[in-house]
Structures are given as structure tokens and as C-alpha cells.
Amino acid sequence: MTRYLALFGSINVGGNRLTMADLRYAFEREEFENVETVVASGNVLFDFDERPTGGLEELFAHMMLDRFDIDSFVAVRTKEEVRAAVEDNPFVGGSDDKFVHTHFLAADPAPDRFEVMMRDYATRGPERVAMGPRCLYIDYVNGVGDSRLTAAFIERRLGCRGTARNVRSLARILTKM
């Protein structure tokens, strides 16, 4: 069995309220093992046979729509991928870690799309951004709340959905994995 993390976007924001007990129950009904939620924002740990994560992402997105009527992006990562999301983030330790995020993406964006996003954002704010494997590393410098580098901005420019977590949360999740 492999330990996985499912990161749900759009949970408990914008009217998409869902209890973590209901989310755990949905996982258990699908026969995933050792299901545990971490923080009430759509982080689910579970065990399952080793397999490509893309199929799991599609399954969970369908489950959210079918059972809860929530259109959610879902990123599934292994323990090693979560560790890399923290350790490979070039902004960790250089800024307050609550402002440093890994934005998990559905796919690797084309490099030219990343360049367009960076060009379009160049004068909008102080954030620092770097590409990683199926993710962006972001230092929000002054915090996420006032940033103009939003998930919608990123999605439009890169052409793929994503969901972000700060590295403090990811480190806490990693210890539970």
C-alpha cells in the first residue's frame, strides 16, 4: 500500500462547505484505507495500491461532483512528492513560511505559458514564483490575502487548474504521512 495525500481545491471556501467527516466517509465508501483528514480545508491522507495519481484525481473530482455537487480540482501526491514540494521550494527559509506556498497543478504547464504568466504579472505585485514538477513555488511576500496572484489568474495564464498550500501546512501533513 502507498500513502497518498489528496489536496482538494475550493473546499470550505466560496460556499462549498463540506465537513471533513463527510469527506472521510466518502473515501471509506470507495474502500480507501487509513483515511485521515488534516486541517478543515480538504487535505485527505489515505492508503491505496500504488498507481498513477491521475486516475485517482479524476475519481475524486467525480466523487465530489456526484456526492456533494462541488466542482473541485483534486491534486493527489505521494509522500515523496509532498516532501519535494517542501524541500525543493526555493523560497523556504528565505521568507516567513506561512507566506511560502506550493501551488499544485493538474499538469506541467508549457514553459511559454509560464513565461506569459510571469510577463503579465511583472508589475502587479512583489511575489516571487518558480516552476517545479506539476507545481509552482510561490513566495507571497506580504501574504496571500492582498495578493493579485490568485488561483484564477494562474489558471487562466497556465491553462490548468491548481490548489495551493503553505509549506507550514505541508510540513505538518508530511509528519502525518
From TrEMBL:
InterPro entries in the cross-refs: DUF1697
PANTHER family from the UniProt entry: BLL4334 PROTEIN, DUF1697 DOMAIN-CONTAINING PROTEIN
Protein name, entry field: DUF1697 domain-containing protein
Organism: Novosphingobium album
